[in-house]
Amino acid sequence: MNEHRDAHGHSHSFDPENWRRLESDERREKMNPALLAHAMAPGPDDTVIDIGVGTGFFAVEVAPLCGRFIGVDHAPRMLEIFRSKEAFSTLGNVELKEGKAESLPVDDASADIVFHVNLFHEVTDIEKFHGEIRRALKPGGRLYFADWRAVPTQGGPPPEHRIPEEKALAILHKDGFSDIRILDLYQDHYVFSAVSE
């Protein structure tokens, strides 16, 4: 999760001190992490990178399905919370790394799947961000991401700070992704998958 400030200097990144909201039953009902894990369908030999891993809300569903799971977050507090969770102690394949979205602390061509959730609208340099994702993915590797629809919803950032679905699609094309698909998983979020060319 990266910080974004508008022209008035207001931050629209998620405050780590509000981490309990990420673990709420309400969020789990609206954004069941198992649905995204099933859609990504990583295999036992796959390496998966979760950018903005946070408290591991999605990681605990995805990690058991893959061979290696790398969680990246810019907030040390989030990584501490994830490490303290009982679920983390049962996962033997998870590596957590502190780092920013536009400068991922991962090797070139090291991932079969990269995913991020509610991060797209926070990134300040999307072209650089996508360059980092393409660098991290193996040839033919797949990106998955979910972000807020640009309509009023209960919770989430103001609609004017969200990226409309059609704009997200255009950005993916421009930044070198192909086989772009829209997945119907969540009511308040669009979900894209795309292949790194």
Description:
It is a single chain. The N terminus is likely disordered. Helix 6 links the parallel strand 4 and strand 5. This protein has a single domain, classed as Vaccinia Virus protein VP39 (Rossmann fold), CATH 3.40.50. It contains 7 helices and 7 strands, in the order ααβαβααββαβαββ. A 7-stranded mixed beta sheet has the order 3-2-1-4-5-7-6.
CATH homology superfamily:
Vaccinia Virus protein VP39
The secondary structure category is alpha/beta
Ranges where pLDDT stays below 50 over 5 or more residues in a row are: 1-12
CATH topology: Rossmann fold
**What string, H for helix and E for strand, traces the elements in order?**
HHEHEHHEEHEHEE
- Major sheet: 7 strands, mixed
Helix content: 25-40%
Strand order of the largest sheet: 3-2-1-4-5-7-6
Give the end-to-end Cα distance, rounded to a whole number of Å. 25 Å
Number of helices: 7
Strand tally, please? 7
Global morphology: globular
Mean pLDDT: 90
Give the arrangement of secondary structure elements:
Layout: H1 25-30, H2 33-40, E1 47-51, H3 59-62, E2 68-73, H4 76-84, H5 86-89, E3 94-98, E4 111-117, H6 126-136, E5 137-148, H7 165-174, E6 177-183, E7 189-196
